[in-house]
Amino acid sequence: MTTLLSPLLDPEARHVLDLDRQAAAPPFEAGTPEEARRAYKQGFPALQGEREPVGSLTERTITGPGGPLTLRIYRGQGAVGAAAPALLYLHGGGWVIGNLESHDEICRWLANMAACVVVSPGYRLAPEHKFPAAIEDCRAVLSFLQDGAGDLGIDAERIAVAGDSAGGNLATVLCLLARGDKKPPVAQLLFYPNTDASQAADSYRRFADGYGLTSATMAWFRDHYVNHAGDIDDWRVSPLKAASLAGAAPAFVAIAGHDILADEGEAYAKRLEDDGVPVVLRRWPGQIHGFVSMGRHGPAARQAVGAAVAAWRGFDPVLGNAQAD
C-alpha cells in the first residue's frame, strides 16, 4: 500500500523518503538484530553530512560495568587545552543498532561549533544486553568524565549530555540519575528523544508508516530493549513517567514535525518546564525522524546542531563567551 505523504514535508525530507522507497529494503523487524545492524551500517553513509576535521580525535578504552567500553574523544577546533567544556554524546539507533561511526559527523560538528571536547561511547546494545545495560554504561562514562576531568583536559563542572532518539532517551535518564551528583550535567541537548515506551501518543498514529521510522519498527526496538512489559513503566525506560523532573539539567529539545516521537518529545519539554527546568524547544515542522543524521541532503541537520549549541551557550555563560560557529 502506498502512503499518501503530507504536503507539509520539507523537500529534503521527501527526497530522503523517496530514496528509501526506491531502495525497497526490508524493514528491520523483518530480520534479526544483526541483519539490521548490517543494513544500517551499509545505509547511513549515504545520509551523513560532511565529516569535517576536528582539532584531534583519539580513542580509549575504560572498564565498564559489563566489560571494556570504547570511547571516541573529539577535541574541537578552538577548544582550550585544559578545563574545556565537554559533551557526552549518546548515539541513537533504538538501543539495538548504531555505533561510533554512525554519529561521527554530528560529534564533529558539536565539537567544532562549541569549541569543546565531545566524548561518544560505544555502549552495550540490545537484545544481547537488555535494559538497564546501556544506561549503566552511560552512567559509568559520565562518572569517568567527572572523576578524570583533569587528565582529559575538561572542566568537570561544565559537562553536558546529548543524544538523539534512543540516545536522547539515555541522555534524559542519565540527567535524572545524576541530579544528586556533586557535579551534575549542566545541560541536556535532546534531538527527537524517545521518552515514553508505551508508544501510545497520537503521533504514532499520524506517522505510523511512510515517514522513515515506523510504529512497527519502534515497537521492535523497544521489545528488544526491555526485559518484559513491566519495564515500560520504569522511568529509566520511559522518563516521561518519572514522578518529578525537577532538578534536571536545562534542556534543548529538537522536534521533527513528521515523526512518531514528536508528541512525546513535546510532552517531555512541557513536563520539564512545569517542573521548573529551563527549556529551549525548537521545532522543524517539515522534518522526519533522524534528520540530524541526514546532512548530505539539506541544511536542516547542521541547523539543528547549531541551535543546540546556541541553547547550550545560553545555559552556560562561560561557553556563551566562546566564539560562535
TrEMBL record:
Keyword terms of this UniProt record: Hydrolase
Catalytic center residues: 165
InterPro entries linked: AB_hydrolase_3 (IPR013094), AB_hydrolase_fold (IPR029058), GDXG_lipolytic_enzyme (IPR050300), Lipase_GDXG_HIS_AS (IPR002168), Lipase_GDXG_put_SER_AS (IPR033140)
GO-annotated molecular function: hydrolase activity
Segments crossing the lipid bilayer: none
Secretion signal, residue range per the UniProt entry: none
Family under the similarity heading: Belongs to the 'GDXG' lipolytic enzyme family.
Official protein name in the record: Alpha/beta hydrolase fold-3 domain protein
Source organism of the structure: Mesorhizobium delmotii
Phylogenetic placement of the source organism: Bacteria, Pseudomonadati, Pseudomonadota, Alphaproteobacteria, Hyphomicrobiales
